[in-house]
Specification:
Layout (H helix, E strand, L loop, with lengths): L1 H19 L5 H12 L9 H11 L2 H14 L18 H24 L7 E2 L2 H9 L20 H10 L5 E3 L3 E3 L16 H7 L12 H14 L2 H8 L6 H12 L5 H16 E2 L1 H12 L11 H13 L1 H6 L26 H4 L9 H19 L9 H15 L1 H9 L4 H10 L8 H14 L3 H13 L1 H4 L5 H8 L7 H10 L2
Antiparallel strand pairs: 1-4, 2-3
Organism: Stomoxys calcitrans
InterPro entries: Rab-GAP-TBC_dom, Rab-GAP_TBC_sf, TBC1D19
Pfam families: RabGAP-TBC
C-alpha cells in the first residue's frame, strides 16, 4: 500500500514539475534559484539544506507554493477527450448541446461578418482609423465608430431558452411507458448538486462568530496575510465576507495568481498593438456592449474608457482560448471561426469586467485579474457545460433548493405556469453584476473566491426570493414578479447568506 502511495506521490510531483516548466514564470524563477546556488548563502558541502534555507529567505518558497496552489486547482485536472465520450453517458445530450451552442454562436458571428462584408478573422486597420484609435486610447469614449448595424450575438435569454428546450433521455414510468423529460424544469439533468446540509458544511466558515471581527482587527489580518504573500491564506481570509476595500484587489490577485510580471506587461503591449493594427468585428461588439450596459449604469459609466481598453485586449488574447476548457463532444458539421480569444462577445460581457474597476487603478492589473476570474468562473456561467460549477448545475441547484425550502413559492410559480429560473437567470449568468450595488457585489465575489465556488449564487438567489416572498405570493404575472425583484439596492449580501445557511 505504501509503495502505491509513494508511486502516486512521485507521479504527481513529476506532473507538477513538467507543468511548471511550461509556465511563463518558470524561467525567471529558475534564474533566481540559479543565482542563489552561486551565492555565499549556499554551501556546496551542504547544498540541500543551505539551498532550501536560501530559497525560504529569498521568498521563493512562497512563490513556488503559490504556483503549485494554482496548478492543483486547475491545470492538473484531467481533461475529457472526444474519444473518451461514452454514447451511453446520461449527460451525452447535454455535452452535445454545449458543442452545438458554441457552434451556433460562432455561426451567428460569421453570418454577421458576411452580412457586413467583414473578414471573420479581422483585417488590417486603415491608417487613419489606427491613428485615431492610438491618439484616443486613454479616452476611447470619444473614438468615432458607427455601430448602427451591429447587435449582440446573444443574450442571457437566448441561452436560457436553449437550456429549457433540452430533452433528456427517455425514462420509464410505471409499467413500460416511456416519457421525455423535462416537463418544464431542470429535474431531468443528472448532475450532482448539494443539498442545504452539504452547502452548510461547505460554507461553515460563514456561520462562525469570528466572521464578525471588527474593522481594525480585519485590517491587521489583511496586512499580515498580504505580507506573507501566501495565496491559500489570502483565499481563507476572503471567506469572512468583510474584506476592507483597500486590501481587496491585492487579495484577489494572490488568490487568482494574477500579480504582474515583466512578461505580463509585454503581453499587454502586444495585445494593444494587435488591437491598433487589426480591425475585427469583435471591436464593434465590445463598443456596442459597453454602450448598452456599463455606459448606462450609474455605478460604472465613469469607467467607460478603461473598459474599452480591457475588453478590446481581452478579445485579442489567444492565451484565453488555450486556458479555457471547452466542452468536448464529437459531432459532424462545419466548424466556424471564433475570435482570437475563443470568446464571442455577448450582451453584458463587460459587466464581468466592470466591478474590477473599483479594485485597480492600472488597466494592466485590472486586465489580468479580470482575465483570471473570467477563465475560472465567468466562462462556466456563459456556456452550456456539465461542470459542477457551470450554469446548468447552478440552475439545477437553485430549482432543488426552491422546491425543498420554499415549496409555497414553487407551487405558486407552477400554478402561474412561470418557470422560476426565468426570474433569476440573469442574476445567475452575470453573477449578479449590474444587479447589486458594487460594494455588495464585491462581497459576494469575495465569497466566490474564498470558497472557490459559484454555488453561493443559487443560495443568494433563493434567499432574495424568500425575503420578498410575501409580495411575490400576491402577484400573478411575470412582469409583476420581475418588478418586485428589480431593485436590489437595499440588499445586504452577508447577513442574507448567513440566514439562508442557518435556517432549517
Amino acid at each position: 500500500m505504501e509503495e502505491l502511495q509513494d508511486a502516486s506521490i512521485h507521479h504527481t510531483a513529476a506532473k507538477l514539475i513538467n507543468t511548471i516548466k511550461t509556465l511563463k514564470n518558470y524561467e525567471p524563477l529558475y534564474e533566481n534559484v540559479q543565482k542563489l546556488v552561486c551565492s555565499p548563502a549556499v554551501d556546496r558541502n551542504d547544498m540541500c539544506n543551505t539551498l532550501e534555507e536560501a530559497i525560504k529567505s529569498a521568498g521563493l518558497e512562497t512563490e513556488i507554493r503559490n504556483i503549485i496552489f494554482h496548478l492543483v486547482r486547475s491545470k492538473l485536472k484531467p481533461e475529457e477527450k472526444p474519444s473518451q465520450i461514452n454514447i451511453n453517458d446520461p449527460l451525452a445530450y447535454l455535452k452535445r448541446a454545449g458543442v452545438q451552442w458554441d457552434r451556433r454562436v460562432r455561426k451567428s458571428l460569421n453570418a454577421m461578418c458576411s452580412e457586413l462584408k467583414m473578414a471573420s478573422q479581422g483585417q488590417p486597420r486603415v491608417a487613419t482609423d489606427r491613428d485615431e484609435l492610438m491618439t484616443k486610447w486613454d479616452e476611447l469614449s470619444n473614438y468615432t465608430i458607427d455601430l448602427a448595424n451591429y447587435r449582440p450575438v446573444y443574450a442571457p435569454k437566448d441561452i436560457l431558452d436553449v437550456l429549457l428546450s433540452l430533452k433528456g433521455p427517455s425514462k420509464a414510468v410505471e409499467n413500460t411507458e416511456f416519457v421525455q423529460v423535462p416537463k418544464w424544469e431542470f429535474s431531468h439533468i443528472s448532475l450532482p448538486v448539494k443539498n442545504l446540509f452539504e452547502l452548510r458544511n461547505h460554507y461553515n466558515d460563514l456561520l462562525r462568530t469570528e466572521s464578525y471581527g471588527g474593522s481594525t482587527d480585519m485590517n491587521l489580518q489583511c496586512q499580515r496575510v498580504l505580507e506573507s504573500k501566501h495565496a491559500p491564506l489570502c483565499q481563507h481570509l476572503l471567506r469572512k465576507g468583510n474584506t476592507p476595500a483597500p486590501y481587496r484587489g491585492a487579495l484577489w490577485s494572490y488568490v487568482l495568481g494574477s500579480h504582474i510580471n515583466n512578461f505580463d506587461i509585454d503581453h499587454w503591449n502586444r495585445l494593444k498593438a494587435t488591437v491598433l493594427s487589426t480591425d475585427h468585428i469583435v471591436d464593434k461588439l465590445v463598443f456596442k456592449d459597453i454602450q448598452l450596459t456599463a455606459s448606462n449604469d450609474d455605478q460604472y459609466f465613469v469607467f467607460e474608457d478603461v473598459l474599452y481598453q480591457v475588453l478590446l485586449c481581452f478579445s485579442r488574447d489567444t492565451e484565453i482560448a488555450q486556458m479555457i476548457q471547452f466542452e468536448h463532444y464529437p459531432i459532424k458539421g462545419k466548424n466556424y471561426e471564433a475570435p482570437p480569444s475563443g470568446v464571442v462577445p455577448f450582451h453584458g460581457i463587460c459587466m464581468f469586467a466592470a466591478p474590477f474597476c473599483y479594485l485597480f487603478d492600472s488597466p494592466i492589473n485590472l486586465y489580468f485579474t479580470f482575465r483570471a476570474f473570467y477563465i475560472r468562473y465567468c466562462h462556466r456561467l456563459t456556456t452550456i457545460n456539465t461542470h459542477p460549477q457551470g450554469i446548468v448545475s447552478i440552475c439545477l441547484l437553485f430549482e432543488k433548493l426552491l422546491q425543498t425550502h420554499e415549496p409555497q413559492l414553487w407551487s405558486h410559480f407552477r400554478e402561474l405556469q412561470i418557470q422560476p429560473i426565468r426570474v433569476v437567470f440573469k442574476w445567475l449568468m452575470r453573477a449578479f453584476s449590474g444587479h447589486l450595488p458594487p460594494d455588495q457585489l464585491l462581497v459576494l465575489w469575495d465569497l466566490i473566491l474564498g470558497f472557490d465556488s459559484l454555488e453561493i449564487l443559487s443560495i443568494f438567489a433563493i434567499i432574495i426570493l424568500s425575503f420578498r416572498k410575501e409580495s411575490l405570493m400576491q402577484v400573478n404575472s411575470l412582469d409583476n414578479i420581475e418588478a418586485i425583484l428589480a431593485d436590489l439596492s437595499s440588499i445586504q449580501v452577508l447577513p442574507l447568506i448567513q440566514l439562508a445557511l442557518s435556517r432549517d
